[in-house]
Amino acid sequence: MMSRAISMIAAVVIWTSLLISQSVMAESVTAKTYKKLTEAQELFGESQLDQAIITLSELLSEVEEDSLDEALTLQMLGYAEMGSENFDKAITYLRRSLATEKLPENVKYNVGYMVAQLHAARGEFDEALSFAAEWFVTIEEPSAAQHMFMANIYAQLKKFKESIPYAETAVKISDKPRESWYQLLTAAYFELDDFEGATRVLSRMIVLWPDKSAYWEQLASVYVIREDEKHALATLKLAWASGVLTKETSIRSMVQLSVARGIPEHAARILVKAIDEKLLPPESTYVELLANAWVNAREDEKAVDAFNHLATLTESGQPLIRVADIYVKNAQWSPAENALKRALDLGELESMGKAWLMLGIALSEQQKFEEGFAALKRARAFDDSRKQATRWLRYAEGMRKQYEWQKSFRG
């Protein structure tokens, strides 16, 4: 903090030297005042701020009130106290300097800007704005940094609508806009729920800072808020392809968006790569997501492998019910039977009735009627499977009679 203040003082000293020389000629600063101010400047240059303050304080007690001598003395005292980080005193002296109304116009508004900066540094943003607003309108061609000073004050006062034009102008006229300027601008648009504006700014930020994953993620989030899943997914995919997307939640969002957009195979391959590269933990949440992605992609064999892995991780039979569903769908009755028996052994099922029903069907389809009847009767004991089990018992009995007739006919 001190070094920054000293650097500021050094720049001001040079400027003030020229000012005093001009003032002596134009408005008759007294010789005594000129000499003391020059001594104070020399002490500034030697970083002897305490001695400079003593010299200027003595001078202040001697100069005529409401004179240019007093105005310049107060101004330099303010800078000296600022250099010593006595900001309360600095503000007091600089405001007193302004109150004399003796400072030249260009000097007055530079001092006003300094007072505004000091108030802002102390968190007194209303006071800062009262000075800065008056100062800003006097500048013919404000710099990008000056625009951002105004933007920051308005943002601190939560006047985001007023802040945005200053920040937009700053990034427009600057050859090298600072990252923090864009961050403030994005935050202001978010505060106003102006997601179109946030999209526009974030789109520029990923070009300027393509290695910052947070900006890609924020842009994708804005697209989701705007219900533009297409561009949200495209943003995440580009970040993924560029190697900057590593946040777990963002990878998961990309996977979910891929499924929602009808490209589950892409989602599954992302998951496999992310788990292999340890960007995602190989835990049940992601293995289940992978299994479902393979199901949606109609990659049955890969889905079966994933559900089997999930059953091992969770020590639950429910993933094996999903395995059985795949086998039943393809009329692969023997693998379905095996999966269902393992599921029942492990337990932790959402519906025991459904498991017994499916097992009864798989057994009956293999002409294992006695076992099948036993399984279907057990399914009939559960409310959620009673009706289907009853129907299947009748159907399986018919299947058995037909099977026995065909068997006796062939015999």
Overall geometry: rod-shaped
User: For the terminal residues, how far apart are their CA atoms?
Assistant: 103 Å
Going by CATH, what is the homologous superfamily of the domain at 315-411? Answer: Tetratricopeptide repeat domain
Query: What order do the helices and strands follow?
Result: HHHHHHHHHHHHHHHHHHHHHH
Report the CATH C-level class of the domain at 315-411: Mainly Alpha
Strand content: under 5%
Characterize the biggest β-sheet. none
Percent helix range = over 70%
Reported CATH architecture of the domain at 315-411? Alpha Horseshoe
Query: Unreliable stretches, pLDDT < 50, 5 or more residues?
Result: 13-18, 20-26
- Average of pLDDT: 86
Radius of gyration: 39 Å
Q: How many strand segments?
A: 0
Number of helices: 22
Give me the secondary-structure category: mainly alpha
* CATH-defined fold name of the domain at 315-411: Serine Threonine Protein Phosphatase 5, Tetratricopeptide repeat
